[in-house]
Amino acid sequence: MTASDLGKSPRGATAEDRGAIPDRVADASPVSLSAGEWPRHGSRTVPWVAGSVRGPREDRMLREIDVSIPPLIANLVYSPLPQTAIALEDAVREIVATDVGYGTQLNALGPFLIRAESVASSKIESIEASPNEYARAICGVKSNENAVSIVNAAEALRNLVNAAGSGRIELDDILSAHHDLMEDDTTDREFAGRIRPMQNWILGSNHSPRGAVHIPPPPEMVREYMEDLLVFANRDDVPAVAQAAIVHVQFESIHPFTDGNGRVGRALINAVLRRRGMTTSTVVPVAAAMDAQRSHYFDLVNNYRSGELEPFVLDLARLASVASREARTSARAIQALPGEWSRMSRPRAGSAAAAIVGVLVDHPVFGAEEAEALLAGISTASVYEALARLETDGVIHEVTARKRNKVWAASRVMDELDKLNSRIGRALVEGSAGVGS
User: What pLDDT does 22 receive?
Assistant: First the structure.
């Protein structure tokens, strides 16, 4: 895409396709919008050929569909309304307070929040697993498909955010994240890391876009839309939290993959925040907040297509503030754990049990081989004796119920994942998250 392409309708879209998109969006220069204003999506009627003889007659007889034509946003200048601007400033303060106040001092907080965000983001897609199943999957021990998917979501988030820390978000980074997420998916693994080659849709029939809530742009337009999105995502003249919100909802409108769009799209929120320097070692667990108000979140994403951007930006700012404050509560709880574990088990100084307690915050899920590696120089017999003692004392628990390839988890750390997500949900329901520190 060249500079002269920015802000135009996608190739293949006519003036009529743009619907209510203002003519000024076609200009190459920056396009200033009134406070709270954002162009709505247009539509385009395209042929539809049924890919299967299955399904009801209405699906088999469908010949045309109306696809959504989002605006190109690379050169749009977003101006928040005063209430939103205040919320955006509050969100930045809360995000930075968590990252600087705890993330740089507590190495375990970053990985913990990545796991919490991945669990919640997967839950939004109705992908859930028990703590024990999740712990087994973390260690690569046979587990169910949902648990593996959640582990992959964490890997995708981690890699995408780390890549954004270089100062740019590239298409290859997003494709790699999608590959990380979907490589073990039994249905869509062949499309892992690939822009979709076919038309997709959201809800409606299983056999055609009939009755769909949203029909994204045709596959031949997706790459240009993604290039346009990345120009916007790599700008530095947009409030960071607002930029993250816009990138997310525009990505969801494009829906560039056959599956996994929601999880990659939510990962992009934290990728933008990392690129803009709002975080250095943590992520903001916004998915837990979105999951707590799932219907509201979906409504805001759907309403974006009518040009209603401001409510989503305002909502994300508030969710980020709540999530960041509650993340600090988890950070304090995690910081206190080694002392609690020592009181629970009272290991002798210099013993294998004391050594395990010393590394447990940073390695809350581990297998036998990892335990031996972490305690290099301590005999295997002493390591297993210490593990048995800590399990008896309630510090750790085994999640595999087998004689070989055992996996243990620090019970309190795994419990805190659920506690964080529950606290975020309660804070939203109550309308207040407390002051935090």
Answer: 36
